[in-house]
Amino acid sequence: MAALVAAEAAAPPGPAEAAEAAETAEAAELSRALSRLLPGLEADSKLSRRRALEALQRAIEAAWPEEPAAESAAAAAGFQGPWARLLLPRLLRCLADPLLGLAVRLGGAALAPHLDDAGRVLRCTLLDPFAAVRRESCQCAASLARATPHHFHMQSESLIGPLMQSISHQHWKVRVAVIEATGSVIQFGSGKSVDDVLPHFAQRLFDDVPQVRQAVTCVVGGWLLDLRDRYSFFHKLIPLLLSSLEDDIPEIALAAASLWEKVGLQWQRENEDDLKDKLDFASPPPAHHPSPDHRPGVGCRELVFRNLSKILPAICHDVTDWVAGTRVKAAQLLAVLLLHAEDHVTQHLEVVLRTLHRACADDDRAVVRSGTRSAELVGAFVSPEVFLKLVLPALKKSPSPSGLLILASIVRGCPREALRPHLTLIATELARPHICQGSENHLYGEHLLLCVRTLVSVCREDCRQCSLQLLEVLVTTEALWGAAGLGDKVQETMDALAAAQDIDGRQDLYREHAGPLVEWLAASHHDWTVHSAELLQFVVVVNHAGPALGEVLPHLVPVLRSCLQPSRDPQMRLWLFSSLSRVLLSAKQTVDSQGHFHHYFDTVTKDILVPNLQWHAGKTAAAIRTAAVSCLWALISSEVLSDEQIRKVQETLMPQILTSLEEDSQMTRLISCQIINTFLKTSGGVADADKLIKVYPELLKRLDDVSHEVRLAATSTLVTWLACVRSDDDAKSCYQSHIQFLYRELLVYLDDPDGTVQDAVLEVLKAGSVLFPELLARETEAVVHKHRSPALCQQLLQHLQAQPPAQ
User: Which residues contact 232 (CB under 8 A, 6 or more apart)?
Assistant: First the structure.
C-alpha cells in the first residue's frame, strides 16, 4: 500500500492540475508586478504616475501571448482570465488619470463585473477639461460597449448625460468622437436613450464642420440598420438621415444616399411578405416624375409613406422656427419626403399646403426655394381636381403672395394634359378683382404675374380658351405694378401669350380682346376715382391697345366723356387727359386706325375739351386746363382733322385759348401760342376781321413773358397773324390803326436786351412791312435815335427802301 501511495505521488500531474499551476505562477508574477508598479499610480507626482503607467504598459505588452492568428482569440481569453481577476479591480480603483483604455484593452468581456467602476471613471473623464482626454474617453466608452454587449445596457444610460454635455465641445474632433461613442453606447446599450440624444444630433446637423455632420449621418444610418428597437424610432431617425441628402458637401450627401438605400433594401427584405404585391407588380414612375431615373426604391418609399403622418407635424412646426437654419432644413426635408411619398401625399395635402404657405412666405430665399420645389412635386403627384379644391378656396379667402407662389409652382409641376380641363377655372379665379387686386405689395404683383407666365409656358396653345381672362390679369398687373418695375415682364408675357395662340404680337392680342376689355372696364366707370384700380386698368388699355382703339370707339369715347366732366375727380381727369394726349399724338395708329374718329370729333371738342378749358380757381384746375390744352394741341397736330374741322375747333375754342395765354403755367402759354399759330395758318384768308383783331393784343402781351420760349412762339404767331391780314385785301384799310399800334409796340422790342428776341421781332416787322411800308418807315425813323443800337432800325429801313413801291 505504501508503495502504491508513493507511486501515485510520483505520477505526473493531469491537465487541470497543470493549468492551475500555470495560472498560479502567472498570478504570482502578476502580484510581484503589481506590488512594484501599482503604488506608483497613486504617487503625488504626475511624472511618477506617468512612469509607473509606462512601465506597467511595457510589462503587459511583454506578457501578452504571441500566438498565431488562428489561436489569437483563445490566447487573449487565456491571458484575460488571471489578469482581469487580479489587475483590473486594483487598476480601476487606482485610476486618477484617463487610463481606462488600457483596462478595456486588457479586460475585454471580463470587464462585465466591473462596469460600475468603469462607468464611474467614464462619467468623470468624459467631462475632463482636456480635449484629448475627452476623445480618449469617448473611444473607451465605445470599446467598452462593444466588449460587453450583453451587460452594457446597465450602464449605458448613465453615460448619455456626460456625452451630451460634450457634444457641443469647441473642438470638432471631440464632437465627432462624442457622436461616434453615442452611436455605440446606444447600439449596445438601452434604446430608451434615443429620445434624449436625437435633439442634440439634430443640432449637430447644423454644425459648420463637415466631419461632424458626416458622423451624425453615419451613426443615424447605422441605427436604422442595426438598432434593436429601430422600428420604434423610424419616424424620428428617418428625418435626420434624409436631411443629410441635401447637405452642401457632396460626400456627405452621397454617404447619406448610400445608407438610405441600404436601409430601404433591408426593410424591404424584412417585410417582403407585406410588399409582395408591390414587388411583383411594380408600378412605373408617375408620368411627370421630376427624376424617373433616380426614383427611390420601394422600401424607401414605403418607409416614408408609413411614417409621413408622424413627421409632417414636426416639419410644419419647424418651418416657422425663429432660427433660419432650422427653417431651411425643414423646407429641404419636406421636398425629400414628397419625392418619396409620391401620390400618397394626397391624404396629407392639407397639412402639406399649410406648411408650404409658411415656407413660401419666409424671408429666407433658401426656404422659399425649397417650398416652391415641394409645390412642384405636389403638382407632379396630385391630381389638379384635388389640389385646386384646396388651393383656390384658400386664395379666395385670403389672397397672399405665398398663395400665388404656391399656385404657380404647383402648375409648373403639373402635367399639361391633366391641367387642360381646369385651365379656364384657374384663369377665371385669377382674374377676379379680389385676387388680381388683392394687394398693392410688389411681391404680390410678381407672383400674380408668375402665375400667368407659368400657365402660358405649361399649357401653351391651350391658353386660347382663357386668353381674355389672362389678358385681364396682365392688364391689372401692368396697372398696379407696371411703374414698380414689372412693366417689361408684363409685355414679355403678353408676347408669349400671343405666340402661344399663333398671334403676331401683343397689338393683335389687344385687337382680339379690346371690345370685351373696354366693356369689362366701362361697367363701373361712373364710380371711378383716382384711386380706382379700374381707372388704372383703363389707362393701360388706352396706352397699349394701339390700333385696337379705333375698333372700340363706341365704348371708349362715352367713358372718356363721362369721366372728364368738371364734376368728376380732378386727379382722375388729369390721368385721363395725359393718356388721351399720348393717344392723339399718334391718332392714325390708335383712335383713327379705322378712319372713324371724325364721327366723334364734336364730342371730343364740345363735351370734353370745352368744359375743361373753363377757368376755375385753384392749382388743380390750372393743371387740368394745361392738360386740356395739351390734348387740344395733340389733336390738331395729329393730321387727323381736315382744315374745315380745325376751323370749327377754332370757332369753338379760340376764346378759351386766348384766355389761356394768361395762365401761370409756362407750358400752357407756350402751347396756346402754338395752337393759335395753327388756327391762323388754317384759317387762311377767310378769317373774320373782328375776331382776328382780338388776337394780336394778347400775343403782344406774351412778348413781355418771363419765358424765352413763349416770347419766341409769340413772335412766330404774330408773323402768321400778319400773313392773315395781308391776305385780306378787302379789309386791309380797317386794320391800319391796329397795324400802326403793332408797329410801335414791336419797335420797342426791337431794342430788347435779348438778341434772339430782337432778331425775331425784326422778322415780324419785315413780314408786316408789306402792309403799310411808309407808315412803318415813319415810325422807325421816329424811334431810331432812342435805341441803344440803331443797327436793327437801319437794317429795317434798308429793307423798306429795297422793297418795290406799292401799287
Answer: 191
**Spatial distance between the Cα atoms of 448 and 438, rounded to a whole number of angstroms:** 10
Q: How many Cβ atoms are within 10 Å of 565's Cβ, its own excluded? A: 12
Cell of 465: 380658351
**pLDDT above 60 for 78:** no
Using DSSP's 3-state secondary structure scheme, residue 5 falls into helix
pLDDT at 137 over 70: yes
Matching residue, cell 378787302? 730
Phi and psi at residue 552, in whole multiples of 5°?
-120, 25
Neighbours of 305 (CB within 10 A): 18
Region of residue 399 (phi > 0: left; psi between -120 and 50: alpha; otherwise: beta): beta
Closest C-alpha to 601, from 555, 573, 632: 632
Rg (CA), the chain: 49
**Residue 210 in 3-state DSSP?**
helix
Residue range 650-665, pLDDT digits in tens: 888 888 888 888 888 8
In angstroms, rounded to a whole number, what is the distance separating the alpha carbons of residues 221 and 229?
Answer: 14
Nearest-CA neighbor of 516 among 444, 466, 442, 457? 466
Evaluate the CA torsion angle 280, 286, 291, 292 in order and state its sign.
Answer: positive
Burial of residue 693 (number of CB atoms within 10 Å: 0-12, 13-18, 19+): middle
Interval 261-286 mean pLDDT: 79
pTM of the model as a whole? 0.79
Contact assessment for residue 263 and residue 271, using Cβ atoms and an 8 Å cutoff: no
- Helix, strand, or coil here: 662? coil
Q: Are 100 and 139 in contact (CB under 8 A)?
A: no
**Element housing 263 (H / E):** helix 250-270
Contacts of 582 (CB under 8 A, 6+ apart): 543, 634
Question: What percentage of the chain exceeds 90 in pLDDT?
Answer: 36
Take residue 201 and report the three cell numbers written for it.
444630433
User: In which region does residue 772 sit, left (phi positive, over 0), alpha (psi from -120 to 50) or beta (all else)?
Assistant: beta
| CA atoms of 435 and 392, how far apart (whole Å) | 10
Higher pLDDT, 48 or 398: 398
Burial of 802 (0-12, 13-18, 19+ CB in 10 A): exposed
Q: Is the dihedral of CA 389, 327, 320, 404 positive or negative?
A: negative
Give tens-digit pLDDT for 486-508.
Answer: 888 999 999 999 998 888 888 88
Single-letter code of the amino acid located at 758:
Q
